[in-house]
Design brief:
single chain; alpha+beta; 13 helices; 40% helix; elongated
């Protein structure tokens, strides 16, 4: 965790707590099995209760991650922000934030937790780093679930639930972006769910532009560019957009041989603004995606690349769930849960950044499985060398040999 040591001063933490946070970030990468308080203590000099108390304290994760990213990510690369929620399965009745959230793996809403993550995407390197995560409040889902069964009331309750959830997402973004000067990245990329007027207006109020997918109910219209006839209000629109025909779209060179790009400037009544849309068509399957940007001057090819790079945030979730214990927390305090999810995402991001810092030429592809295995091997060898440096021996019949054989085990096993 050399990178952590170089940027930890930005957090303003006491020295003992700095050491604890460093230990947690290291253990989340190296510990095999579930990243519970008890299992962390089996591989550390800290006690289980120390971890429980430490997870209840506040850490400015965004400051840590932004400082680390700016220290490593090349400034001449293309960078954007990405935002996306992720479902975390969680059982129990007393966990704060527990509710019914959409689980894309199963295609339905399930009981658990949801985190929403703001990430930094290096488009040139085609990778992403976590900035900060927060728990999504469950009240919107409960409002929708407890609504009366009458059609009109249920529809209004669902709309209110969606608005409340978008408010929570916006509150997180509005808190992090201005505080750390992230509006200089200019663009925030999100999936089609966030093509809502409230979210788009909220991001634009921060001085940024949104790159997303056009919703099916957007009902875009062509802008009228003909002459004014001299009577009445000037004509603004020139018919609805037929995405199946696209006779008024302009083809642009595609960076991908399997994709066809076509672009046009249209007006979206539901968003109450003009958009530059790019229709991406697969050359063989004829599958189609319609991308939008609130920046009318942005090059269509860049818009396509920025939105495609947004998917890198999914690999952050995958690596954190598989290797750094994102879904393993057994805490029942909101602060401890927030600490755990942020520490898990930060551990993965710092590992990736540190490998970027020491990469070979040509650079090897990043593998979290390789990084976790090497981190554990290095940690275990350091324990062995520290024992030998103090004059210890490791004969097969010595107590120290048995201690190292049982390192990290739930119950020691006799030879």
């Amino acid at each position: 965790m050399r990178l952590f040591d170089s940027v930890v001063a930005t957090l303003g933490l006491s020295q003992p707590f700095q050491r604890l946070v460093r230990e947690v970030l290291m253990l989340l990468v190296i510990v095999p099995g579930r990243a519970t308080f008890l299992n962390l203590s089996r591989h550390s000099r800290y006690d289980e209760k120390t971890f429980r108390r430490g997870f209840r304290r506040e850490v400015h994760w965004a400051a840590l991650n932004v400082a680390a990213i700016r220290a490593v990510a090349p400034a001449h690369h293309a960078h954007v922000l990405a935002f996306d929620p992720s479902f975390i399965p969680k059982s129990g009745k007393h966990t704060p934030g527990l509710g019914r959230f959409w689980n894309s793996c199963t295609g339905r809403a399930e009981l658990g937790l949801e985190i929403h993550v703001l990430a930094w995407v290096d488009v040139t390197a085609n990778t992403a780093y976590a900035i900060q995560a927060a728990l999504t409040p469950p009240e919107p889902a409960r409002v929708a679930r407890t609504a009366p069964r009458t059609t009109g009331t249920a529809t209004q309750a669902t709309a209110k639930a969606e608005d409340s959830r978008v408010d929570a997402y916006l509150a997180h973004v509005r808190r992090v972006i201005p505080e750390h000067g992230l509006s200089a990245l200019r663009y925030l990329s999100a999936d089609g769910y966030f093509g809502k007027v409230k979210f788009v207006d909220g991001i634009q109020s921060l001085g940024m532009n949104v790159i997303s997918q056009l919703r099916r109910d957007a009902d875009p219209r062509y802008l009228y560019t003909g002459p004014y006839r001299g009577r009445g209000r000037p004509r603004r629109y020139d018919g609805k957009v037929d995405l199946a025909r696209r006779d008024r779209f302009t083809a642009v060179p595609s960076p991908d041989a399997d994709r066809i790009l076509e672009t046009a400037v249209v007006y979206a009544p539901r968003l109450r603004c003009c958009l530059r849309v790019v229709v991406v068509t697969h050359r063989h399957t004829r599958g189609r995606a319609v991308l939008l940007s609130t920046d009318l001057a942005l090059d269509p090819v860049k818009r396509y690349r920025y939105y495609a790079a947004r998917f890198q945030i999914e690999f952050l979730f995958r690596d954190s769930k598989q290797f750094t214990g994102l879904t393993h927390s057994q805490a029942r305090q909101a602060q401890a849960l927030t600490f755990h999810v942020n520490a898990s995402l930060t551990a993965g991001s710092l590992t990736k950044l540190q490998m970027m810092q020491t990469r070979t030429h040509p650079p090897l592809p990043f593998s979290m499985a390789n990084a976790a295995r090497r981190a554990f091997n290095e940690h275990f060898l350091q324990r062995l060398l520290a024992h030998l440096d103090h004059g210890g021996r490791l004969a097969e019949n010595s107590p120290e040999y048995e201690t190292f054989c049982n390192y990290g085990l739930i119950q020691p096993i006799a030879a």
